[in-house]
Amino acid sequence: MCLAIPMKVTKVEGDPDDFTTSQIATVDADGISKEVRLDIVDHWPNVGDYVIIHAGFAIHSLVEEEAKKNLALLKQLADTMPEELLRTDII
User: Fold this and answer.
1) CA-CA distance, 35 to 56, in Å (whole number)?
2) Is the pTM of this model over 0.70?
3) How many helices (H) and strands (E) are present in the chain, helices listed first?
């Protein structure tokens, strides 16, 4: 199963009109920071924007309200998940 996560953009590098530059953003969710590629994102983000991250790529931009709702739902899901389904050693 694949899961895409909404994350907040904290830094943007590169030029949206020049594919020879490194098109990278630093994103954050709940204190976890990652660098992601911007090659396929639907809308070039600014610092403070939210984007959906999947497999190291920003793939879709979100308005803040939508992103926060999605993050709250993911947190609720994790908080109510049975412990045996959270084990990583059975995969």
Assistant:
1) 8
2) yes
3) 1, 5
